[in-house]
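Listing S7. Sequence submitted for prediction.
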Amino acid sequence: MKTKVLVIIAAWCAAFAGVGKTYAAADTYSKLFSDTYAGKADTLTTCLISQFMNVSKGTFFAIPRDRPDRVSASTYIYWQQAHAMDVVIYAYERLLETKPSLAATYKRYMEAWYKNHANNWYHDSNDPTGFLNEFTDDMCWICLTLIHMGEALEDTKYTEMAKTIFDSYVVPRGWTDDEDYWGLPWKSNDKGRNACTNAPGCLVAARLYTYTGDKSYLDIAIELYDFWTHVMSVELNNDGRVEDPPLTYTQGTFGEACRQLYHITGEQKYMAMAQKVIWYACSSGRCVDRGILRSEGESMDQSLFKAVLIPYAVNLVLDEACRSTYRTNITKFLIKNADTLWENLFVEDYPKIYCNYYWAEPIDQTKVPSMGAMASGASLIENVARMARGFNVGTGIRDVVQTVSDGGAVYDLQGRLVMRDTSAIGLLQPGLYVVNGRKVNIK
């Protein structure tokens, strides 16, 4: 089947820069980039896998796999598996068309990760999924990666598993307080409710609503939004802090939940909140040190926080509803971080290139490298490469009528795989897509 599609410059400009802006404004964003970052992404993702992954299981060690204590050091690494695997999924989406053999290898890692339940250390004989954990937030993070995996592989079994985990183990733990606000507890055996549980819980619910169309998920997402904005109303209303101290992973996750709610409901308050909380993470002196995202600590948890923020910051930048001021400033900020990280890597040590906790300084080579820090750095470069593709950096764009023949992957404007080939492109919803390196408007 062949479908005629029109590459419309003005429409693409409006999608990125706002209605009424010219192509020159959109072109300004692409000119912020001096690199496509694809080669650097290949390098760091390869290093993450070669140095930290147990390739037979698709899971990650906390420390380099050539160390004799790698297994004992990695026993309780569960939620962290979600964000390390997310890097691999983004690489798979980027490479599917250009390097299909490598993408197929990454697919095998995803399947193994799923089969081995993401290294879940918690076991319950009554749990048929293998993903049940006493920490509610751990399951929420795993659900988000399963949803991402399902989209990338076009296989609903992963998304259905996320749905089962959320329905069976996450939602039943929720409880309503004296002020009639429903929220999720951090652990199964207490009632403490925090941002690192309720922010990803809100996002999972929003994603499952988009997947199923079941309004009960939207109700949960809105309840969690209302709960958290009530609890942290002073910080959110004044400057965009999701919690105190502000941590990048909750800033990013709550911001993405708000962005998703905006697109579901059309209510501007959600996009306004998304922009506020993501920008806070990119601009506040409490999150940024000398223009670069700060080190939030050297534990496995702390070192991974930035890996959660980065993809959601890129999603906001590539969202046509994002205000141009936020888009420009966040884009510049992310490029500066990516360039600074790369300048401070010992690239001559490939494949043993390791990222530091703070990207403006080289790693102390006398210390044991961290998977969390490595995943954060690889996430930065992979997602800046995705951002470059979203702005059409290095691909070119022409105002022509194009006939798209069968073959070639189809991506949305956020760089996510929509279809493996164009054989059924006519079934897509009208809108802008990337096909064979070109922006196309499907009507």
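Caption to Listing S7: primary sequence and predicted structure tokens for the chain studied. Residues 324-343 form the longest helix (20 residues). The longest strand covers residues 431-435.
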